[in-house]
């Protein structure tokens, strides 16, 4: 991508409304624009990151055996009257009437709708286990939307819903998703700690939140300090292996870790004082086992191997991609801007032409740009006629992991500088070596 043809509305000044660093940097780097309270446009740079986050989430959901579909954002009130949540959900639900005066709502979550999909088609235990997910916009009329897309009113959610014949099967589904979540967050460059959590309006009694430690986080968490270091299940884990998945889950749950709602002072105090960690964090995922709460109310049942009807056991599993993007920034930035993990960087490399219009600089940059792009690397070429200082500042702000800097002096020797955004280390090398460095790192 040539910057001269891109749409990157960088802000020079610090926006006053931004209270936390991720919100400030997302506005300054031209990633998002607020449209009204808690409602955002994802500008091209932000959209690139969001797409990469979603791609990783999708790969790990698919790996675990979940199957993707897409449900609508607008739902009819009738479905929610069946489950009893239409009245119970309260003011967070945005209620709308269509031209026929029929009550509708902008979905805050999809348990009812997926249960309706399930009951329309699935009649036999032979079709189980089943886990269906989508990545879709939600709306919750939060009293206090804040921190940009961290807590917004319209936000993206990956929500998965599992269906099993009995509690045992549902526990396996839960453990499988638990392992998939550990892998997902790790690939996003994050350490998200699973903690016992309250189930709130979703219901049920088994639930974990995945929390990233951050001072600006809105959740209060308590755990053993060693709990923040852990192994991630490998890609070749057998998600169908009940014992393997239970092992991963139990390795976790054997140690005390809880959010403030579930906080058990006695259990926490049983940890030696020097090993206790109480901190703040950002909830990036939340999983629930709620048994037959919706399937019973809405008649989702299958014929079992015994020939009898069984109400199915369900769980739901959420991740917030539009919250993950600022969470990654909270965890990875410096005073100059964002430092993206390679897996979600909007551009893996930026080429900085320090003297656009200079024949030798242009030729070197064009060569690097052409070859690196051909190798499949997402590369941004700053071919604008801004001064070099402004180009350096922009490159640092938008946080591509590698910068290739071409100035007249080095280009005269057939060389460019390669800068690592994270460490700040600069290395001079030939144009060919720079191409190889960026292209083969892929
Ligand atoms: N149906 C269940 C799980 S599928 C559910 O709705 N769970 S939730 O309420 O915990 O939301 C799931 C995830 O969505 C949260 O972990 C969080 O990452 C994200 N999320 C929830 N509310 C917001 C919000 N207002 N802004 C941004 N992300 C949000």
Description:
There is one protein chain. With 442 residues, this protein is an alpha+beta fold. The protein has 2 domains: 7-337, BirA Bifunctional Protein, domain 2 (2-Layer Sandwich), CATH 3.30.930.10; 347-440, Anticodon-binding domain (Rossmann fold). 33% of the residues lie in helices and 28% in strands. The protein has 14 helices and 23 strands. Strands 3, 7, 8, 9, 10, 11, 12, 13 and 16 form a 9-stranded mixed β-sheet that branches. β19, α11 and β20 form a beta-alpha-beta unit. The chain is elongated, with a radius of gyration of 24 Å. The model has no long low-confidence stretch (mean pLDDT 96). The structure holds 5'-O-(N-(L-cysteinyl)-sulfamoyl)adenosine. 5'-O-(N-(L-cysteinyl)-sulfamoyl)adenosine is lined by residues 109, 111, 140, 142, 151-152, 155, 157, 159, 202, 283-286, 288, 316-320, 322-323.
Provide a quick synopsis of the model.
Helix content is 33%, strand content 28%. The chain contains 14 helices and 23 strands. It is elongated and about 80 Å long.
